[in-house]
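S.,

As promised, the zinc ion run. Input:
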Amino acid sequence: MMMMFDPIYMIIILVTAVLSGVASMMVKSAFNKGKNVILRSGLTGGEVARKVLESANIYDVEIHQQGGFLTDYYNPTNKTLVLSADVYNGRSASAAGVAAHEAGHAIQHSHGYVPMYIRSAIVPVANIGSMLGPYLVIFGIMLGAAEGAGLGYSLAVIGVLMFGAATFFSIITVPVEFDASSRAKKELYSLRIIEGDEELGAVSSVLRAAGLTYVAAAIGAILNLLYWAYRAGLFGRRRD
Ligand SMILES: [Zn+2]
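Predicted complex:
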């Protein structure tokens, strides 16, 4: 309960929300602008994804479409690339950029790109850690974490470490995403799916904005981790 009234925590929540809000507005705006740049190659996002995969000798990935806005993802467990309807059917720079980016994840998977494997491996710990970590810290504080030793302190430290796993997940997502985008751009250009400065510029700005959403999430996670470490008494001294 006391966390609710901690002004520092409220500022962190606010900063995190503003960062992610601004980033997702930038993605929306870049995507909608890029939708007006129709590719001279005339390919749909679904066709783009297939071409990029085939150029990397990947023939065992299924491509599906689904509803929603920018709900695109690659699922390594069943080798499925799921594209939103706008991307799957679109013939624009935005559709090609997102489709090639998701194909980039499939290429990372088939080429054994290490950060992607680390990221997948810590998903379960990260999920539990982001939910349970803060409660352990609060519980530890109630049991006397401020003393800097004893059961309360140990619980608080475990809570911080668990939240740290979730933070690490957010951080390692950033290079995975930027790598998928740079693979995407390279393939789009060398396969002549996109041509000229206008098409390349539109693809770049969509992928750059998408990358920023992950940077915003990582910054938010780091701020939260610092907060919980501070509450746990790992640095600074707090007298309640
Ligand atoms: Zn991605």
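The chain has a mean pLDDT of 93. The chain has eight helices and three strands.

- D.
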